[in-house]
Amino acid sequence: MLNFTQYCYSPFFKIFILLFYFSTISSAFSQTDSLATKSYDELVGLYSSKIGKNPEIAIVYMQKAHQLAKQKNDTKNIAKTLYGIAFCNFYLTNNSKALQDVEMAIEILSTQETKNSALLSHCYNLRGMVFSDIREDSKALDSYLKAKQYSKNLINKIKISTNIAFIKKMHKDYKEAIRIFKENLLIVEESTIIEETKRRYEVSILANITETYLIMNEATSGNFTKEARYYNDLALQKYSKNEDTVLYYFLLINEMMILFEEGAYDKSIELAQEIVDYVLENNDENSLCMAYFYIGKNYAKLKEYNRAILFFEKANGIIQNSQRKYPIEKLLNKELALSYTAIGKIEKGQEYFDKYITLVEAESLDDVKVLNAVYAKNDIPELRAELDRLKEIILSERKKKQQLYLIAFALVLVLIISFIWYRKKVKKIKQRITEVLQKVSELERVEAEEKNKVSIISEKVTDEKAALLLEKLEEFEDKREYLSLDCSLSFVAEKLESNTSYVSNLINNYKNKTFKSYITELRINTALIRLKNDGKLRSYTIKAIAEEFGFKRQETFSKAFKSQTGIYPSQYLKKLREDLEVN
Predict the structure, then answer these.
(1) What is the dihedral of CA 472, 473, 478, 481, to 10 degrees?
(2) Which of 117, 330, 485, 494 is deepest in the core (most CB within 10 A)?
(3) Is 496 within the bounds of a domain?
(4) Shortest CA distance to 577 belongs to which of 526, 534, 542, 547?
(5) Helix 265-282 crosses helix 285-301 at what angle (to 10 degrees)?
């Protein structure tokens, strides 16, 4: 699991959402030693060709284009180039300069009689990204909402929506953030935009989904490493190093983190070192800080604390000299506290622990509301207990036996508690299985009675049409046509020679349930009876059993079975096999 409890890292992946208002201008110009002879359009083309690979060069082209726009007093292009310069500075973590330039662009655009809505939307969106990068999320949200007002086309709305989802993610609304990311991904996939642009957006969103799952590893009780692995692999398949080096290395940062989560510490270190080599050449302090941090985390896991401290301190040096607000600063101090204490430097460890506490206490009001209980009741006490344990081991070897006894006692206590919990769980499952078997017996009794009694639907239902359809529905049930994999509302309507709306209302009114609940209940009840009485069927895999009863996916079958019976199919089958062995 991840060893951090909040946010993981700054908004790496929002900067993937490149704005393509320059895309109609050719970027196929070759670079020469002098920019003096270049036209405005040529400079913009050169900028577009470099922004995804080398923003330090791209900003030179945009600054020259800005000079040309000022010479011609072209306010539209002045604003556009200010935006481009701001975007480069955002890439390079020059946030104060980025904010200054984008504010100037917004001021120019806002004073024009005819508003350039697209460019204003881009500017406000970029301003929001800068605010988010310096952890002023309330201002970021205001900027995104302003960008939304000016946004006219679908893709720009997706950019803004993705950035708002990022804020939701940063404040632990993970499920909602993932829902928005996946919804946007589907929209992009089905869009008709240029293929290269489409893939860039797809990879950006996939990277955000990956990051969210990685953060959820620690913030929730689940383990989402497999999901993170799936989406990051998908992103890496779609994008190569040659297409956009900056974007590619951000994906490698995710890969580095996933390898750490999978316990492949040596591979994670090797990949982190590759990232370090790249970012040192390209002045990317954000990626460098993250790479150093994870090299340190990997070495700490390998109990090579001196090497871990070396890289933690490198990351700390970047943070102390940066304009960016790094959420990992608190976590870095925590790791430094543990590592220094582990090598016996207790005072140094305490110093970083005090810094960790100070940073926890300095959380913004929004974060305190969400995270205060977790930090106060869980993280800090656990960390203090771990530090105290390490101090005792280092300061007094004489207490080693006492420590071992305490640990042994704790383990025994955990085992006892686990055993009691397990017994209670097993008892609860057995009770549910007994209830399910009783239900099966009742279903078998009702089924036998149904075979022997004559249908009297027409006597109970006064609506002749409804009575006729209910008789057909009864025949549909008797033939067990609901077990077809193709069984849908339209399928049933066709069998009953009616329309979907009428059939749906019929089931709602006379069966007192939705169509989906009706079909699912029939299938699960049939499964319960047949599995009890069919030994051959019991030997099938869960997937094959699911298909036998009309479910296309094993997961859907298991979920429906658990929802209706309170137990999983595997537990039911196990009980049936045990009873068979006893008999």
Answers:
(1) 110
(2) 330
(3) yes
(4) 534
(5) 160
